[in-house]
Amino acid sequence: MENQQQNQNHIQLQMIAQQIGQMQNQLKMIDDQLNELTIIKQGLNDLEKLKKGDEILAPLSNGIFIKSKLEDNKNLIVNVGGNTTAKKTVPEVKKMLDKQMDELKKLQTNLLTELQGLNLQANYFENKIKSKK
Questions:
Q1: Measuring CA to CA, which of 12, 106, 112, 128 is 20 to 30 A from 83?
Q2: Taking the model in full, what pTM does it have?
């Protein structure tokens, strides 16, 4: 009976370890997204400093750029989903990015709280396993 309980403790610990790993991956993805949004916001700040006619590098694809001249640094075309675009001002886009960042930070905080709980559970089962040896 005691051996069966030890096996259950090991299984519980393995399941918790898997959950912890998944949460750590989610947290990494959130961190990457937050960094990307920060870079985009910095790019918008830099864009506002440019003047009409300034030469810029416009992305065609990931890592592929073309030299072009800036026609408008006040309005942007934004993909709003479903292959639909909308014209938005730089401040509107910054506000949109801030909202996305706030949502990601809330999710990050919730995941960190859950992760702490899982770590406590893992410690509990580790101690149970050690105490039975």
A1: 106
A2: 0.82
